[in-house]
Amino acid sequence: MEDKRPIRELIACQKSGWSLEQRFYTDPEIYKLEIDQIVMRNWIFAGHESELAEPGDFKVFRVASESAIIVRGQDNKIRAFANVCRHRGSLVCLEDSGNTRKFECPYHAWVYDTEGQLVGARDMAEDFRKEDHGLLHVSIESVNGLIFVCFCDDPPSLDSAKRDLAEPMAMFDFQNLKVAATRTYPIAANWKLAVENYQECYHCAPAHAEYAKMHTLMLDKKKIDRVQNHMLEKMPACGLKKYHYDFTDTEAPKGQQGYAYSRTAMFEGYKSGSRDGEPVAPLLGNLTDYDGGASDFTFGPVSFFLAYSDHVVGYVFTPVDQLNCKCEIYWMVRSDAVEGKDYDKDNLVWLWDITTHADEKIIVNNWAGVKSRYYRPGPFSGMERLENRWISWILQELRRAPSVTS
Ligand code: FES
Ligand SMILES: [Fe+2]
Question: Domains along the chain?
Answer without folding.
Answer: 44-141 (2.102.10.10), 159-397 (3.90.380.10)
